[in-house]
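Lab channel / #folding
Pinned by the channel admin:
"Please post every new chain as: sequence first, then the structure tokens as a reply. Keep commentary short and put observations after the output so the thread stays searchable."

First post following the new format, from NK:
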Amino acid sequence: MADDFPPVIDGTLGSCDQLFALLLAYLRGLNLKEAARVLFVADGAAWIWRRIPGLVKSLGLKDDQVQQLIDSRKTQAQKTWLNDFIAHGLTHRLRDYSKSRTHHMPIGSGAIESAVRRVINMRVKSNAVYWLRDNAESIIRLRAWIKAGRAEELFHQITYITPTLAL
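Reply from TO:
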């Protein structure tokens, strides 16, 4: 986590493909081709790891730039995937935690899990709270940007009018 760069937090009620399209848009905006290292860290969910190779390819990243780490709780539902990552993860360096430590990068997805709790669970999924889908999508985005310290950026995104439109 970089102290000089606020996190990008966002979310959607859409499909996992829509979520990855949103992620791709953000990552393209960061010009990751110039980065020395790009770390993808997530739990052992198959739907995530099936999409990572396509994401890496779409971003035009080189193999030596990319590191992938699995951060998986050993729940019954994830045992099969965890065993698969243990068996194949060493080949694909999905469990190279020492490399992340050497480069002062995170080795777990705790920051993401915390963001989900703060953005969604504490407001959108509270007891006796009911949202229309469109309203929930809006509040998720608003809360995510506020929690990331980027509310002003969001405000400018949705209120910006070009000089030609203003005339």
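NK: Residues 31-106 form one domain.
TO: also worth noting, The chain has a mean pLDDT of 76.
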